[in-house]
UniProtKB/TrEMBL annotation:
Residues 139-305 form the Glycosyl hydrolase 109 C-terminal domain. Residues 5-127 form the Gfo/Idh/MocA-like oxidoreductase N-terminal domain. It comes from the Bacteria. This is Predicted dehydrogenase. The keyword Glycosyltransferase does not apply.
Amino acid sequence: MSNKIKVGVIGLGARGSSLLEGVILQTPDVEVAAVCDIYEDRTEHAAKAVERSLGVRPFTTQQYEEVLAIEDINAIVVCTSWDAHIEITIASMEAGKYVASEVGGAYSVQECWRLVETYERTKVPCMILENCCYGREELMVLNMVKQGVFGDIVHCSGGYQHDLRDEIAYGRENRHYRLNEYMNRNCENYPTHELGPIAKVLDINRGNRMVSLVSVASKASGMKEYIKQHKSDDEALMHAEFKQGDVVTTLIQCARGETIVLTLDTTLPRYYSRGFTVRGTKGMFMEENNSIFIDGIHDHNVEWSPQWGNVEGFREQYEHPIWKKYFEEGVKAGHGGIDWLVFADFFDSVKNKTLPPLDVYDMASWMCISALSEESIALGGQPVAIPDFTNGKWTKR
């Protein structure tokens, strides 16, 4: 009997194909048995990549249900458009397959509850592939938090701050779903990159939980200006109205009293940043200037300069064990290594039949922020309650 994990990959756009070729096919003891996408050319491209790598052509289909029906597939990787993530994750659990889903936001709280209820009924694990939880800085800061370096954590912030105007504007040509999303929704549409690492710092679902949020959105001007300057020959887009605000700010209150601020900023000119910031009673970390400030070590009366507080000075003492091991074994591809690390944990859980570190309760509570922010924005920034998807178990998990 083979010890290989047999995997079905569903969704083979830019993200799915890059993960397939750059991570999954490079992982020992993993065999890609099936590939699926609604577009036949994407499926064919993936099948050829698998055949080049493994010497065997995988099963191909445009219907994900056919992949789930293959008995000897152990695990499913979902890289489809956002609106299909939870649907396919639920179907995979129903089919008895370990499943890892790419990130995004939920469209309703009800689908998040269905996700949790399916897991609790089937006991088939799912994992959200939030690679930013494996970032080198994020894990080092988490290690420092757990060792008490920053004291009692009071506030965290982060953002998905990424100029995506080109990707959105050319969504029809590239068959990318973001264009449709930005024309029809107004919400914190991509919360997990910033929220995942913050949730680990604040013990969300494991001794703490998010209880409510307030979300507001700016006007939507960025895409209109971009299209006017770069795509004025596109008659349909020139007259299109975008609902998605250029900057969305979401404030979250936690059960232990901490606050979280999330910022979505993807349709104005800017540099890339996740803005990860941790504030505690003994110090702070700030991604924007790559700095650490420790009370009693650094002088709060002096303006910050690159000569002090740089994270590199803390590496030797606080580098996370995951990254120490990773450097020893050799850094591999995928967003500087974080794709490799998140998949390594998923495949380990499949192989050992254990629960993944980013579980169904994380997936539901992080992804529901999109639907709840949409509601809060529509209500003029009114507070909205965040469900407890653990049904009270967060106090002792």
